[in-house]
Amino acid sequence: MPQPALRVVHEPATEVDLTAAEHAARQFLTALGVGLDDEHLHATPRRMARAYAELFTPRPFDLTTFPNDEGYDELVLARRIPLRSVCEHHLLPFVGVAHVGYLPGERILGLSKLARIVEHFSHRPQVQERLTKQIADWLAENLQPIGVGVVIEAEHTCMTLRGVQAAGTTTVTSTLLGTLREDARSRQEFFSLTGIAS
Question: Which residues form a coiled coil (predicted)?
Fold first, then answer.
């Protein structure tokens, strides 16, 4: 029986200096006029440093692929994968869902890995357009499927809480590769299954 192919996926080692981050957070909040002497705010710089370190550090995971022994050639789609990231322009969160699908080639992917890939690329300061493309390109390169489709729907707090303050607005981005981009019927099926009108 063929064994699954495993590959550990992780970010290049980068050192997180929580002490320096806490010091910088303290200076930042003080510069904005936030008094930190209150009991409720005294530990805020430490909590803030740890929170951002968590937001910017993806967990390593094993990319598990299996031979496509049955020759499955229909769409594999994970819908509404929860997503959270941080806008690189304002360092404010954006949250939403990703719909990630592919048309298998010689290998298929362990289903939980679609969510892991979304999480992996979300854990860094990002823009939604790049995030959408990174997920699709990574799947195309590492899985070599016949087609890949990624749609992200997200609400950006840099737009809903500040600036224009357009509460409830969502941004939708998509990247289609291979057959899902080139074949109109495959593209329509993908968008129909994600619930996005094409």
Answer: none
